[in-house]
C-alpha cells in the first residue's frame, strides 16, 4: 500500500489529473499536533472520531487533553503508528460499520480527508449518520474560491506509483452538506477549516 510507504517517511506526492501534484505533508502528520491543528483540537470537547487519522497526531493530542478520541484508517501502518504514540485506532473504512454510530460529538476530516471516496457529499451523509444531533464535523478545506475537484488520484513516491483511487478536493462553499448548518470557517497557519453542526 503506497500510503504506508509515505507514512514511513518517504517523500510522496498525490497526483490528481488536471492539477499540479501535491506533496504529502508526511513530516507534519508524523510530528506532534501544532500550528493549524489547534483549530481542530479546540473544536472538540467530547467524544471525537478522527476519520483518516494517519499516524495519529490528532488522536494523541486529544487524549492528552482528556478528550475521548478514536482514529479510523484503512492503512495498517497508520494504525500501528497511532497506537505506538499512545492513541487508539481501528483499521476500518469509514463507510463500514463503526463503533458508536450516531453517538459521536465530533468528527474530524483533517489533512484533505474530505476527499475520501471521491464524493464529499456522500462522505458528509455518512458523517451525519455517525454524529449525534447537534454534533459537529470539522473539515480541513481548500482556500475559498478553489471550487470542487473530483477525479482519480494516486500516491507516488520516488520511483514508485500506486493504483488510482477516487479522490476530491473542495473549498467550504462548494460542499453539499445536507442536514448540516455551517457554523464557521477560519484560516490558520496557511490552512483553511470549516465546521458544520448536525441538524
Automatic annotation (TrEMBL):
SUPFAM superfamilies: S-adenosyl-L-methionine-dependent methyltransferases (SSF53335)
Gene3D superfamilies for the chain: Vaccinia Virus protein VP39 (3.40.50.150)
GO BP field: methylation
CDD domains named among the record's database cross-references: AdoMet_MTases
Protein name per UniProt: Methyltransferase domain-containing protein
UniProt-listed InterPro entries: SAM-dependent_MTases_sf (IPR029063)
Keyword set, alphabetical order: Methyltransferase, Transferase
Lineage of the species this protein comes from: Bacteria, Bacillati, Actinomycetota, Actinomycetes, Pseudonocardiales
MF terms in GO: methyltransferase activity
